[in-house]
From TrEMBL:
This is ATP-grasp domain protein. Keywords: Ligase, Magnesium, Metal-binding, Nucleotide-binding. PANTHER family: SUCCINATE--COA LIGASE [GDP-FORMING] SUBUNIT BETA, MITOCHONDRIAL, SUCCINYL-COA SYNTHETASE BETA CHAIN. Residues 27-234 form the ATP-grasp fold succinyl-CoA synthetase-type domain. One of its GO terms (cellular component) is mitochondrion. GO terms for molecular function: ATP binding; metal ion binding; succinate-CoA ligase (GDP-forming) activity. The lineage of its organism: Eukaryota, Metazoa, Ecdysozoa, Arthropoda, Hexapoda. It catalyses: GTP + succinate + CoA = succinyl-CoA + GDP + phosphate. Pfam families: ATP-grasp_2. GTP-specific succinyl-CoA synthetase functions in the citric acid cycle (TCA), coupling the hydrolysis of succinyl-CoA to the synthesis of GTP and thus represents the only step of substrate-level phosphorylation in the TCA. The beta subunit provides nucleotide specificity of the enzyme and binds the substrate succinate, while the binding sites for coenzyme A and phosphate are found in the alpha subunit. Its cofactor is Mg(2+).
Amino acid sequence: MINIAAHTLRNTLNKKITALQQVRHLNLLEFQSKDLLQKYNVAIQQFKVLDNSGKDAEVLKQFECPEYVVKAQILAGGRGKGTFDNGFKGGVHITTKKDEVLDLTKKMIGNRLITKQTPKSGIMVKKVMVARSVNIIRETYLCILLDREHNGPVLIASPAGGVDIEAVAEETPEKILTIPLNIDKPIPQETLEKVAKFLEFKGKCIKTCAEEIQKLFTLFKAVDAVQIEINPLAETDKGEVISVDAKLNFDDNAQYRQKEIFAMDISEEESDPREIEAAKHNLNYVAMDGNIGCL
């Protein structure tokens, strides 16, 4: 069955979370993930990356947008409500004025951003992504992940995007669709359209959404991903279907095949030193609260 019971879904999602906690996968910054999506023709917002270098002004000069989204790049969520160690508030800002973009980046880069997901001291911001703002009229959720229970990739979709998907599964399980995928074949067109309709896309957007899902599955297989999570997969007022925010995780065992991707790894700069030391010996270190050890 395509729709699964709420408790089964919760188990799947919990397994996904547990797996990601127990295995030290490569993580990419938002702009790096978007760059990968772009290479596989997945529709995203146009963006540029600034680093407080002398080239920033020239890069921005050639980037015309009605409205800009300025986002600090760190491996942590909650950036919008975060605070920098210099007192500047917010790791995400929106402005229609190009001259304000550089001012905002200077307040971010070189300072530590503190959010609910960072250490108390925060994480140093070294780059800022500047993206074209889009007028989103609907947000949906899409995820492709490797699932042990299904012995292969699984697609999870929900019309309730932009929120915590685990909460959606718990409170409104009827808004979740789960479909096992064949790793050796493209997703059938009938399945793609069924997912698009479940996500409540209509008219021409059904075909557009179907095409975007297929591109994401192609990317998933090509880069040895263990998870591609798009939240939100958004519909704009211009009829676009865009991957606004993406989270990608990769199989560490595929590093020899994906050298270019793994070369982008910055997690060592932001990880627990104990994780880094353990990884040097092909071990996984998982930090836990409490005073009970397990060997």
